């Protein structure tokens, strides 16, 4: 039987992918390659933030990993709100 990951597990996997992209970006031989990898990392983080719904039960129990996910999700959402809007 196939086991599907939970939302939290999938989000953690995406954050791991983002971290890998950031490490590779530091070693990229070109500026455009580095920028592309940082952009991919940003997208992985954004996707992870959307997947990491704030789990009230887990945070109430003091689950440290859940609290970190909440903090990351809030940071990403705040950054999105503060990003200048393009257009007129």
Features:
globular; mainly alpha; 88 residues
Summarize the structure.
With about 90 residues, this protein is an all-alpha fold. The chain has helices spanning about 5-25, 30-50, 55-60, 65-80. The protein has one domain (about 5-80).
Question: What this model shows, in words?
Answer:
The chain has 88 residues and is mainly alpha-helical. The protein has one domain. Helix content is 75%, strand content 0%. α1 (7-27) packs antiparallel against α2 (31-51) and α2 packs across α4.
Mean pLDDT: 78
Helicity level: over 70%
Q: Tell me the domain tally.
A: 1
Q: For the CA atoms, what is the radius of gyration? A: 15 Å
- How many helices? The count is 4
* Main sheet record: none
Query: Runs with pLDDT <50, length 5+?
Result: none
3D shape: globular
Element pattern in H and E: HHHH
Structural class: mainly alpha
Portion in beta strands: under 5%
The N- to C-terminal Cα distance equals: 52 Å
What's the β-strand tally? 0
Question: What topology emerges from the helices and strands here?
Answer:
Blueprint: H1 7-27, H2 31-51, H3 56-60, H4 64-82
Helix pairs in contact: 1-2, 2-4
